[in-house]
Structure prediction request, 250 residues.
Amino acid sequence: MDHAGITFDHVRKEYPDGTVAVEDLSLEVTPGEILCLVGPSGCGKSTTLRMVNRLVEPTSGTITVDGADVMAQDVVELRRSIGYVIQHVGLFPHRTVAQNVATVPGLLKWEKDRTAARVEELLALVGLPQETYGDRYPHELSGGERQRVGVARALAVEPPVLLMDEPFGAVDPQRRRSLQQEFRDLQRSLGLTVMMVTHDIREAVILADRIAVFSEGGTLEQLGSSEEVAQSPANAFVEDFLADFGALND
Prediction:
């Protein structure tokens, strides 16, 4: 798998009603890292993420993935080439686990044998072996299992980057911690480049190589390792945001 970086260069998103979701963002996600975006509700985190695969299109500025301007690419091909995992997974309820994972390879018209081998490989990778889970339907799975299927589906065509929007938010708290660790181990083993939105600074501390703290208007208040952000808040905004969560090492 080739790993790619993501770059935002003076990116702005203003909606027709004049609302500015992201004012002037310059940011780089380096190949092979997990960068978590955190901040209060409505600060532009998800908008920033969705501009990468053009679910939201920037008003101005440039976003590149592996050096290629996303706005210069065919939008359908772009979205098929970027892994995307959301909170409620979005599995097709009337398709089996194996069929869900095979969705994008099918759209790309892969050979059946190639698709089958890839599905089996990915289900094994996320701890849901084909012989046990391949023929099950989403309603037969736990929340954590559905989320793993979502990750497997997102990785099906070896995307250069993986976007994740509150990926573990719908999983019960006890299961969430182990799922977070399992994902971190998977990311390290594959060297994935991951950009992830979370409302939970504790989750960011567990998962992220670096954390980006946003305030309203997609303003980047601080970018650094979890230790740097926790121990040396850049300003009063970051300090107050962290204080809402109490001690991060509890």
